[in-house]
Design a protein that fits this description.
Blueprint lengths: L9 H7 L1 H36 L7 E5 L6 H9 L3 E6 L1 E5 L11 E6 L1 H10 L3 E5 L8 E5 H7 L6 E2 L13 E8 L5 E4 H8 L10 E6 L4 H9 L6 E4 L1 H43 L2 H9 L4 H39 L11 H17 L1 H9 L3 H5 L4
Parallel strand pairs: 4-9, 6-8
Antiparallel strand pairs: 1-10, 1-11, 2-10, 3-4, 5-8, 6-9, 7-8
């Protein structure tokens, strides 16, 4: 036997008033989608900049002499740190990357000797997937696959300021290899700089060096570096690089927070207004519920579950729409240019979860006030 729907059930009202229900649900879905998509775009850009410029510092620290070259005494002190495995002579530069954050997402180019390049790549868990590493003393460069996609480069392509005036990397380089791995970086020959600047083998450290720690002893090595007497040099560790990164991203983070708060405020006001209209049109239903023995508290709890259910449905649909849009954007735009969006992080969900939470809480205010002033006798007599 077919089960009949209860005349005063929530589902009966939904089926009879789909347009009213959809008007409230659509506001929640759209708001959750906007916050989720905004977080996904900005946090993905943050993540790329972090992975490119900060995370590599988990594998090494560096020292920069304010006046070239590094003093032999300082090099000796660096090597004497108990947790230090190697002190590599080298240098680094930056290469443009057309990304969401513009210049903030420039990638590093490491100039190292060939054996040291292999050592650094192993520390960073990078692998050569195509071509070969730069030959010593050549103008060759091995770049990450993401950089190749971003700049539309392949083996044998040229890059550098002499090829593109907008490029930060000075000179002309030929792509000899493609790399894969988490850090988006490139490698070129340090011997090329030695020839260009006339550095003698006995004084090869120029003004920069990379310190590689023994396995699992980065923190101990950095403590040793911090204890060195101050001098005409600057030491950069993961902590100092992370602090500088956070400072640079602080303005964008504040802007993102402000936008999120504005969206939440607008949705809260809209949801409160819609809830008032939504339940005001159902006064007769609530009056009948009171007349047949429902307490106002029970009706309030029922209304809260109803609003909460709509809010959760809207949250789930908004998050799903955000993930689908991220997949489509990756396929059509971001993956081909080497900066795929990160489709899910806890920050996305927590930020978007503010919408259903505020809707459920603020939506109960007009309902509580309406029930408090509800005139059951007038409703039964048909006055209202």
């Amino acid at each position: 036997m077919k089960r009949k729907a209860k005349p005063l059930s929530v589902w009966t009202y939904y089926r009879s008033n789909l347009r009213r229900v959809w008007s409230m649900l659509s506001v929640i879905i759209l708001s959750v989608f906007l916050l989720f998509a905004l977080q996904m775009l900005i946090q993905s850009a943050f993540r790329f900049s972090y992975v490119s410029n900060v995370e590599p510092k988990k594998h090494y620290s560096s020292v920069l002499a304010r006046e070239s070259p590094l003093a032999p005494e300082l090099v000796g002190e660096l090597k004497a740190c108990p947790a230090t495995e190697s002190v590599l002579p080298g240098a680094y530069a930056y290469s443009n990357f057309r990304a969401l954050l513009g210049d903030a997402s420039s990638t590093k180019v490491y100039f190292l000797k060939e054996p040291d390049t292999n050592l650094m790549m192993n520390r960073m868990n990078l692998r050569l997937v195509e071509g070969r590493l730069p030959a010593p003393g050549s103008n060759e460069i091995a770049i990450h696959q993401s950089i190749a996609r971003n700049k539309d480069l392949r083996l044998g392509s040229e890059m550098g300021s002499q090829v593109d005036k907008r490029e930060q990397l000075t000179g002309r380089f030929v792509v000899s290899g493609l790399l894969a791995g988490k850090p988006v970086v490139s490698f070129a020959s340090f011997e090329t700089l030695i020839k260009q600047h006339g550095i003698t083998p006995a004084n090869e450290y120029r003004n920069y060096a990379f310190m590689l720690p023994q396995p699992g002893q980065l923190a101990e090595m950095n403590r040793c570096l911090a204890s060195l007497p101050p001098g005409n040099h600057d030491i950069t560790t993961y902590n100092t690089a992370k602090a500088k990164y956070d400072e640079g991203m602080e303005g964008i983070s504040l802007l993102l927070t402000a936008i999120s708060l504005i969206v939440i405020l607008i949705v809260t006001i809209s949801a409160g207004f819609l809830c008032y209209i939504y339940f005001l049109q159902r006064r007769s239903e609530f009056g009948l519920l009171v007349a047949i023995g429902y307490s106002r508290r029970r009706i309030t709890v029922r209304a809260f579950y109803e609003i909460g259910g709509l809010a959760l449905i809207g949250y789930g649909a908004g998050v799903a729409a955000g993930i689908v849009s991220g997949i489509l954007l990756n396929v059509a735009l971001f993956a081909p240019r080497g900066e795929p969006l990160v489709l899910w992080q806890m920050e996305y969900g927590l930020s978007a979860a503010c919408i259903p939470l505020f809707v459920a809480v603020t939506g109960m205010v007009p309902i509580w006030r309406m029930l408090k002033r509800l005139d059951t006798i007038a409703i039964i007599e048909g006055v209202v």
